[in-house]
Amino acid sequence: MPDFSPASQDRLAIQLIRERGALEDLQQGRIERAISRCRNIWASLPGAGYGQREHSLDKLVAVWRKAGGVSA
Known about the structure:
By secondary structure, the chain is mostly helical. Helix content is 51%, strand content 0%. The mean pLDDT is 95.
């Protein structure tokens, strides 16, 4: 990663999502499955288990839809 700019962070996040096998899930609208596959990357995802405040699945799906995401 050349720097810590938002664009670089986005590229890294996409790569991490791809490595968890969740990129196709996102592209196909399977947001719940993608979140489940990535929960061990980001501590705030539901079920991460790091003892940190986790966002609810309902809240994340609502944000996904508000941003234009379509659930399968």
